[in-house]
Amino acid sequence: MASPGKKDYYEVLGVSKGATADEIKRAYRKLARKYHPDANPGNADAEARFKEINEANDVLSDTQKRAQYDQFGFVGDAPPQGSPYGGDFFGGGFEGGDLFGDLFGSFFGGASRGGSPNGPRKGSDLEMSMRVTLETAYRGASREVEVAREENCPHCDGSGAEPGSKINVCSACGGRGQVERAANTPFGRMVQVVPCAACGGKGKTAEKPCAECRGSKRVRRSRKLEVKIPKGVDTGTRLRMAGEGEAGRNGGPSGDLFILLDVMTDSRFQRDGADLHVRVEVEIPQAVLGASVSVPTFEGTEKLDIPPGTQPGSVLRIKNRGMPRLRGNGNGDMHIHVKVRVPKDLSARGKQLMSELASEMKVEVAEEKGFFDKIKDKFSV
Ligand SMILES: [Zn+2]
Ligand SMILES: [Zn+2]
C-alpha cells in the first residue's frame, strides 16, 4: 500500500493494524522520547526517524485520518510534501509543538529536565480561519492575512538586555544558574536542584533590561502574510505555513501557522467532493425534440446537447468541469440536472397547439373553463 520510499505508519510505530488508541499513544511516546532531537543532538538519522514517528502518530491518533489511511493508504506523494493528511502543503518541519511540552513535561518533570529550561523550544502553533467562495476554491488564490504573534525582540536580539548594558553575575544564584530547593515529602526531606528563577538559569542578569521588551526577550508583532490557497480546497482543509507561528524560545524553531478554510456555498453550483452539480431548466419541446442549451461553469458558459426524449430529472455530464482535485489529478465533472418546465403562461395559440397534441396522443385533457365555470368552482365545496 505504501508508496516507494515511505514506510507503513503501523510499522513506523511498531504496532499491529488492530492496535487500540492507547497502544498507539504508548508506542508513540516511547519512540518519540527515544528519537527526540534533544536526546540525539546532531544525529540526522534520529531526526528523520523522529519526523516519521510524528507523521505516523499524526495520522494514526486521529480516528478519521486513520480510517482514511486504512482505506486508501498514502494519498499523494511522499515527503517533501509531508503528511498527505492535514493539508500541509507548505512542507517542512514537524507538527506538535505543544505536544513536546506535554510529553517532556510529564516524562522529565519540567524544570528538572537536565537543569536546562534554556534548551531550545519550538514556538507555539497559531491557527486562524478563513472563508472563501467556491470560485476561489476552484481557481486558487493568494490572500493577505494579518497575524499577531510573539517574535524575538529585535531590539535586544532576544537577549532581554538593553544593548550595551553591563551584564552582572546573578545575585540570587551567585552565577551558578541553579538553586537548591528543599521540600518535605513522604520519603523525607528532599533537596532538589532547580534553575534559578531570577536569571532564568543563565547565571547572569542584565543591568538594564531591554527598553523594548522590558527584559521579556519577546515582543508582540502584527505581520501581514501572503497565504497561497491551492486549487481544490474544501471546508475543513487546513493550510500550513511552516515557521509562521510564534517564535521558538532559546533558539528553538518557530511554530507553524495553520489556516482552516471554510468554503462558502454557491448559488449556482452544489459541490460534492470534486464534482459540481447544476440545475438547468428546459421547455417541454426542448425535452421532447432535443436542443442545445447553455450551462454555466467556472470556465464560462458551455453548450450542452439535450438529446430528444430527455426525461425530467435526467442527469447529463460535462467531463472535467467540476472542482480541481486538491492534489493534482485533474478535475471532477459537472453534473447537469435537467428540469422540464411546465408552462403556466401559454398563449391562446399555445394552448390550442397543446390540445391538438393531446388529441394526437389520444390523451384526455380538461376542457378549458370559461370565466363563469371558474367562479362556480371557487364557491362549490
Ligand atoms: Zn528586547
Ligand atoms: Zn540566578
Description:
With 381 residues, this protein is α+β, with helices and mostly antiparallel strands. Among the domains are: 265-342, Urease metallochaperone UreE, N-terminal domain (HSP40/DNAj peptide-binding domain, Sandwich), CATH 2.60.260.20; 347-381, no CATH class. 24% of the residues lie in helices and 27% in strands. It has nine helices and 15 strands. Strands 10-11-15-14 form a four-stranded mixed beta sheet. It has a three-stranded mixed beta sheet with strand order 1-9-8. The chain has a two-stranded antiparallel sheet with strand order 2-7. A hairpin with a 2-residue loop joins strand 12 and strand 13. Helix 2 packs antiparallel against helix 3. The longest helix is centred in the first third of the chain and has 17 residues, at 44-60.
